[in-house]
Amino acid sequence: MKFGWVVGIVEGEGYIGNTRPGCPVVRVATTDKDVAYRLLEWTNLGNVRLRNQPTSTGKQVWIWDITRRDDTAKFLDEILPYLSERRSATASQAIMDWRDRGLTKGQQTHCKRGHSYSSYISVDGRRRCKKCIDLRSGIYQSGGLAEDL
Q: Chain-centre distance of CA 110, in angstroms?
């Protein structure tokens, strides 16, 4: 029953698309706070936030959206058979764009210069290639390895 309700809300009130190429998003904007939080609770996906601008009648608008690429694609894949033809085509295109985009940075095993992430430094929660950091700081420059940059 919950699954059918979620699909119905997304089909009737939702938006399916891309925030940028290969980054699918599912979004439902509603003036009913409980609907947004029920979507969050029943799917265990996404976030709920209050839109900055109220409606023309002054009502607050609550937005539930899934923006993590992998979560969004998996969710769309699950609900795809139950969507209307138009929404199904949009969801299929979003999934194909996601697949074409490739790995997310968190899934990559090498930095953009080809160095392995087997040794890396976490800066502000983000991975940084230790070899690139060392090269930039000049540790290897005297040994002639600076040209690796």
A: 21
Rounded Cα gap, residues 22 and 99, in angstroms: 7
pTM recorded for the entire structure: 0.67
Q: For residue range 127-148, what is the model confidence (pLDDT) as tens digits?
A: 777 777 777 776 555 555 544 4
Cα–Cα distance for residue pair 71/66, rounded to 1 Å: 7
Residue 51, domain CATH? 3.10.28.10
Contact between 60 and 33 (Cβ < 8 Å): yes
Residue 40 confidence (pLDDT) above 50: yes
Range of the domain at 60: 2-102
Place of tokens 């194909």: 96
Listed residue (46, 29, 35, 39) closest to 6, CA to CA: 39
